[in-house]
């Protein structure tokens, strides 16, 4: 009888240990530890586009004009980066009438859903306007007045430092910068954009630059777009013998990736 009681006690003891262990293993902490870790979100990729345009005429006037532009955009968390380049080359009756190259980049740091600070750099060479180089760099602040899937409207402003060689004369000065950008999706297949930039020299408001662009693009396929845009660059103090205003009308094809 005593042997049976001893065996029973041992059995009950083992059962108690197993029950306690089962309770520990079934706690939420252990369940979470056993669950697989959630997969990390993939890093945001660059969005890019390359556009080409060309105009050729023969007859009473022999002309050729080529344009090219490329742009990259990346957005992640509170950061936005834009980089790009565009160039133009043209001849009329074997005389060069267009030869320009521009490269630029801008970094935005969002401090709220709509407000941001930025740093930008913009370098221009224009042989016809006799601009050997014009480098514009500076910080500033901006705000998205409209930030929707279909429409975006923003404004930017801040100091700007300009280093240039125009007409063989090198100089540097400080200017203000005020800019505005607008985008609107007309439909699922068409988009309108417009932007403007005003750069007056701080201590000489007669020396200023105004840049304006407006354009429209429409889908041919998901990746290939047809675009038409106008670029107007106004320099109130151009190189000697050069005109103040330069206007380009461009029609071309853009590949988006």
Topology diagram in text:
Blueprint: H1 2-25, H2 28-34, E1 47-57, E2 63-76, E3 79-92, E4 95-110, E5 115-126, E6 131-147, E7 151-166, E8 169-187, E9 190-201, E10 204-219, E11 224-235, E12 245-256
Antiparallel strand pairs: 1-2, 1-12, 2-3, 3-4, 4-5, 5-6, 6-7, 7-8, 8-9, 9-10, 10-11, 11-12
Description:
The relative contact order is 0.11. The radius of gyration is 31 Å and the shape is globular. The protein has 2 helices and 12 strands, in the order ααββββββββββββ. The longest helix is centred in the first third of the chain and has 24 residues, at 2-25. It has 2 domains: 2-34; 47-256, Porin. It has helices at residues 2-25, 28-34; strands at 47-57, 63-76, 79-92, 95-110, 115-126, 131-147, 151-166, 169-187, 190-201, 204-219, 224-235, 245-256. It is mainly beta and 257 residues long. Strand 6 (131-147) and strand 7 form a beta hairpin.
Defining key terms:
single chain; mainly beta; Porin; globular
Write a concise synopsis of the structure shown.
With 257 residues, this protein is mainly beta.
Whole-number tally of structural domains = 2
Mean pLDDT level:
87
- CATH superfamily (homologous) name of the largest domain: monomeric porin ompg
Using the 3D structure, state the CATH architecture of the largest domain: Beta Barrel
- The number of strands is 12
The strand line-up of the biggest sheet is 1-2-3-4-5-6-7-8-9-10-11-12
Q: Segments where pLDDT lies below 50 for 5+ residues?
A: 28-32
* Overall geometric form: globular
Strand content is over 45%
Largest sheet: 12 strands, antiparallel, barrel
Radius of gyration: 31 Å
Give the CA-CA distance, first to last residue. Answer: 86 Å
């Amino acid at each position: 009888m005593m042997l049976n009681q001893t065996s029973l006690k041992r059995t009950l003891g083992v059962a108690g240990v197993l029950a306690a262990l089962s309770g520990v293993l079934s706690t939420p902490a252990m369940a979470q530890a056993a669950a697989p870790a959630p997969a990390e979100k993939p890093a945001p990729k660059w969005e890019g586009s390359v556009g080409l345009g060309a105009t050729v005429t023969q007859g009473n006037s022999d002309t050729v004009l080529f344009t090219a532009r490329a742009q990259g955009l990346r957005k992640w968390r509170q950061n936005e980066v834009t980089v790009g380049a565009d160039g133009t080359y043209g001849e009329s009756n074997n005389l060069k009438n267009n030869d320009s190259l521009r490269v630029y980049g801008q970094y935005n740091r969002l401090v709220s859903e709509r407000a941001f600070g930025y740093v930008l750099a913009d370098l221009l060479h224009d042989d016809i306007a006799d601009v050997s180089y014009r480098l514009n760099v500076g910080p500033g602040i901006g705000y998205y007045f409209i930030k929707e899937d279909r429409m975006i409207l923003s404004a930017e402003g801040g100091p700007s430092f300009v280093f240039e060689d125009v007409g063989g004369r090198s100089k540097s000065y400080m200017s203000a910068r005020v800019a505005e950008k607008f985008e609107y999706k007309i439909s699922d297949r068409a988009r309108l954009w417009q932007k403007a930039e005003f750069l007056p020299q701080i201590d000489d408001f007669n020396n200023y630059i105004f840049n304006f662009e407006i354009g429209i693009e429409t889908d041919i396929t998901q990746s290939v777009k047809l675009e038409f845009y106008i670029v107007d660059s106004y320099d109130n103090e151009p190189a000697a013998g050069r005109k103040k205003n330069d206007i380009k009308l461009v029609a071309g094809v853009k590949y988006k990736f």
